[in-house]
Design a protein that fits this description.
Length: 149
């Protein structure tokens, strides 16, 4: 087994043993060095966003003093859910390696497939999303752009 994936498994086991959350762990690697680690902490933190990949990204960003992980790789015990994939993309990580897939995770009760299905089929019974046009919201974007550029 890959050493980085093995470290992610070790991190996941810590979380399971402490009853922090589900059986998931992740590590962020930069130039062959682990710069961020995380395990699922949904239960301990009462935070549904405290997935292993998000926690590892947060740890790497804190340790590297940046929000840009462009040169990093992430290793996860399981295929990242859509939220975690989004966090990975937002952090500019370009490579992801994982040990089990979403179908295997679904067999033990996790519902990643429901979210993937929502995106594929626009499942209105799972979530209804609608745009409300707002000039104030647009002004907020315009003001931000003018301030930054």
């Amino acid at each position: 087994m890959n050493d980085y994936l093995l470290k992610a498994v070790e991190e996941a086991r810590i979380g399971v043993e402490n009853q922090d959350g589900g059986p998931f762990g992740a590590v962020v690697v930069l130039n062959g060095k682990i710069v961020g680690v995380g395990h699922n902490q949904v239960l301990i933190s009462n935070d549904p966003t405290a997935h292993a990949e998000v926690m590892a990204i947060r740890d790497a960003c804190k340790n590297l003093h940046t929000h840009d992980l462009s040169d990093c790789i992430i290793y996860s015990t399981s295929e990242p859910c859509p939220m975690c994939l989004s966090a990975i993309i937002w952090s500019n990580i370009k490579e992801v390696y994982f040990g089990t897939n979403r179908k295997e995770v679904g067999k033990i009760g996790f519902r990643d497939d429901k979210i993937y299905k929502y995106f594929e089929d626009n499942q209105k019974d799972l979530l209804n999303v609608k745009e409300i046009k707002s000039s104030e919201c647009q002004h907020l974007l315009d003001d931000y752009q003018n301030e930054i550029y």
